[in-house]
What does this fold into?
Amino acid sequence: METTIAPKKSLFRSDAMQRLLAFGALILLFVVFSLASPYFFQFDNIIGIFLSTAVNGLLALGVTFVIITGGIDLSIGTVMTLCSVIAGVFITFWGLPVPVGVLAGLVTGMLCGFVNGWIIARLKMPPFVATLGMLYVAKGLALVISGLKPIYFDESPAYRMMAMGSITGAVIPGLEIPNAVLILFGAAIVASLILTKTILGRYTFALGSNEEATRLSGVNTNTWKIAVYTLCGLFAGLAGVVVSARINSAQPSLGQGYELDAIAAAVIGGTSLSGGEGTILGTVIGAFIISTLNNGLRILSVPQEWQIVITGVILILAVYLDIIRRRQK
It folds into this structure.
């Protein structure tokens, strides 16, 4: 009688180890920058890091689902801008209640995501091309609808308080954590539950692992792919609401470039560009790595162009490590 011994899974190939390495890198950045500058570890600066992570983190949560399916979404940055402009139109131009404006922004994001998914799934257009097209469509619509001018929320202070108010400060005096940070963590919990506990999450991994096998097993892959891109659009809409509430205005020229930071956060956090692998926790850690790196380099007066170079090098290393890990598997 033969006994089959399963091959041991190396620590490097372990998904948990990948998240642990990313978290270790984040801690290392905190230690290095704290030693390099006495201003880095001050409470106000740490809150600034959390705030800058909130928007990028929300975008990264949505694009994580898309990347796990083996796709990509280059439009989330400008879709975010369009959603903030739509919220501004509803609240500032039309004088509707804040919740209505927020809902309009979220629905706009979902609609853009749905269109992306439909084009990719039904018209069989490559995700890169389809979402690149949506990038320009959303950017153009944001400029047209806003009349090329920022839309301010000065007459709706409740809108700004959604992001910059502090529930924790009301409960625990002195602990002023902006609501935008709480929204990020709440969205991350919801995203993690969707990815790990629902049928949408299971099919997200299935699409990325082997879409053809999933289709042959009787799953309507087109429907689920559209659902994934729609969910990504929802997170982009939420990011649009948060960023416009944070700066108290909808800036029609803002947004392009955010998609690259979001994709970088997901990849640095262990989401594979080849599809089939990824976690929400890893993505959140990746988003904090990018924000911490940018913040620390800014405090050390490193020129912005070199900040971009360093971020690019880290992204290349993260992708290369993922390639090595997949080869070992």
